[in-house]
Write a structure and sequence with these properties.
single chain; mainly alpha; 75% helix; 0% strand
């Protein structure tokens, strides 16, 4: 049922033609099933599972449209922001109290969208062309409502690293030119999904500091 709904979204927003080889429905179904299985394993059948399954469903749809058509439908991030706000009080991943959850969701929008907006602005000043698409900015604003400001910031960092590595590999393989375009939406989506399974980002800095101390003490 989920895959069927996903196909409808892809056809409606991106003009996909099922069966002509453009839309890889088998891969999408496999990716959807795998993602939901991982979420169920992590959160079992709970409200958190339902909320993040909806987020993941949206991320898969926008990643597919961005990869094939270089576009992120504005309706998806907008719907994420509205839905995330409505259920922010019930999203325990945002905090322990209702006020803290709402505040974290607001900060998530500002951080997720704001960081990319700043990067895009600087990139445009330096390279004299669009560095970050408006769809990417809106997408991370929508994701930030669900995961909060810390994980939104960490997701942008992970996506940037993954995108950079992918770009270097494609350049080395001569699959793209030096100034070629790589869709950033799939990297943002993958990074956002990864953060759902991670502790708060500051824990990585604590672990990293402890690891460095142990290494230097040897």
């Amino acid at each position: 049922m989920i895959s069927f709904i996903l196909e409808i979204i892809l056809v409606s927003y991106a003009g996909f033609k099922i069966g002509n080889g453009i839309c890889k429905t088998s891969f999408i179904k496999f990716l959807s099933a795998l993602s939901f299985a991982l979420l169920f394993y992590r959160f079992s059948f709970s409200f958190q599972f339902i909320l993040f399954a909806f987020l993941t469903f949206s991320l898969i749809s926008v990643s597919t449209t961005d990869y094939f058509h270089r576009i992120i439908p504005a309706i998806v991030p907008i719907f994420l922001i509205i839905t995330g706000f409505i259920f922010s009080f019930m999203n325990s991943a945002l905090g322990e109290t209702y006020p803290s959850r709402f505040i974290n969701s607001v900060l998530g929008i500002l951080t997720g969208g704001g960081v990319l907006l700043a990067v895009g602005f600087l990139g445009q000043l330096i390279y004299k062309k669009e560095a970050i698409g408006g769809g990417d900015i809106k997408l991370m604003a929508g994701v930030g409502v669900f995961i909060g400001w810390e994980k939104a910031l960490f997701a942008v960092f992970i996506a940037t690293v993954m995108g950079g590595i992918a770009g270097l590999i494609l350049l080395a393989a001569k699959k793209i030119e030096k100034k070629g375009y790589i869709p950033f939406g799939p990297f943002l989506s993958a990074a956002s999904f990864i953060t759902l399974f991670l502790p708060q980002p500051y824990m990585f800095f604590i672990w990293g500091t402890l690891l460095i101390r142990k290494i230097t003490a040897l």
